[in-house]
Amino acid sequence: MGKNSHIEWTHHTFNPWWGCAKVSPACTNCYAETLAHRFGGAIWGVKGQRRFFGAAHWAEPLKWNAEAERTKTRFRVFCASMSDVFEDRRDLDAARVQLWALIEKTKSLDWLLLTKRPEHVQKLVPWGEKWPDNVWLGTSVENQEWADKRLPGFVTIPAKVRFLSCEPLLGPLDLSRYAKKSGIHWIIAGGESGPGSRAMNPDWVRSLRDFAAKQKIAFHFKQWGNFGPAPKKSQESTLFTFPHDGPVMIARHKALNGRMLDGRTHDEFPM
């Protein structure tokens, strides 16, 4: 959990618990699992015991809400960076009930619930067809296979804002069938960072950018990650070339690759 998060598209992060299990290729190099292992405890995997928190932890969003009311500012809260709210386990139900109540109390916070398990959402939330206005629902779509698995049901869930996290973006995406009737309100895209990172083809993210512009969907480009487009006269020794004479990428720290896409940043938000 943290106030003033370093994640570009949120203000704060809140985790009702720590721990998760991998479900798709986007999870291969999970940063949350790596971070959790530094703190010890077997909290990852299907058999792992999730780590829960006390009253002081749960009181933090109430403070953020009070500040938002005082400053007349809406804060975005990413929930959850170290877990998945919609992991379908009975030992998580009590914390989920506590989370729903907290969301309903903090009406000046916009809660961004990001999941890789959208098929469980409607049976685990208490809101039926009338969701609170301060809940934004997101799902991860790293390639076309997982977009086609997750999005048909996802775009029908009646959250005020539905967003996609295409990070790490591991392949090209055609989202045209899911954008009808405002099925998608926001697209976040980015490459992978950290050990074992996989390169993102610039054409994949350009296609998402252009699609979002055409459909009037807010678009946010978060980062290139550990592979960025190589300068034409690069002297770097670590290069990656996509097959069939594709783009040449340079492997280096994500801070050096940055988040400029064709000469500009993209920091759009829905509404």
Name the helix and strand elements from N-terminus to C-terminus, one letter apiece. Answer: EEHEHEHEHEHEEHEEEEH
Share of residues in strands? 15-25%
User: What about the largest sheet?
Assistant: 7 strands, parallel
Total strand segments: 12
Determine the structural class based on helices, strands and strand pairing.
alpha/beta
Rounded to the nearest angstrom, the distance between the terminal CA atoms is 26 Å
Which sequence of strands runs across the widest sheet?
A: 1-4-5-6-7-8-9
Low-confidence sequence ranges: none
Output the number of helix runs. Answer: 7
Instruction: Let me know the average pLDDT.
Output: 94
Total number of distinct structural domains = 2
How much helical structure, as a percent, in the residues?
Answer: 25-40%
Query: What best-fitting shape do the alpha-carbon axes yield?
Result: globular
Radius of gyration based on Cα positions: 19 Å
Topology:
Elements: E1 12-13, E2 17-18, H1 31-38, E3 51-52, H2 55-71, E4 75-79, H3 93-105, E5 109-115, H4 121-124, E6 135-140, H5 144-154, E7 161-166, E8 186-190, H6 202-215, E9 218-223, E10 227-229, E11 239-241, E12 248-251, H7 254-257
Parallel strand pairs: 1-4, 4-5, 5-6, 6-7, 7-8, 8-9
Antiparallel strand pairs: 2-3, 10-12, 11-12
Question: How would you characterize this protein structure?
Answer:
There is one protein chain. 26% of the residues lie in helices and 19% in strands. It is α/β, with parallel strands linked by helices and 271 residues long. The chain folds into 2 domains: 1-128, no CATH class; 141-271. β5 (109-115), α4 (121-124) and β6 (135-140) form a beta-alpha-beta unit. The longest helix has 17 residues, at 55-71. It is globular, with a radius of gyration of 19 Å.
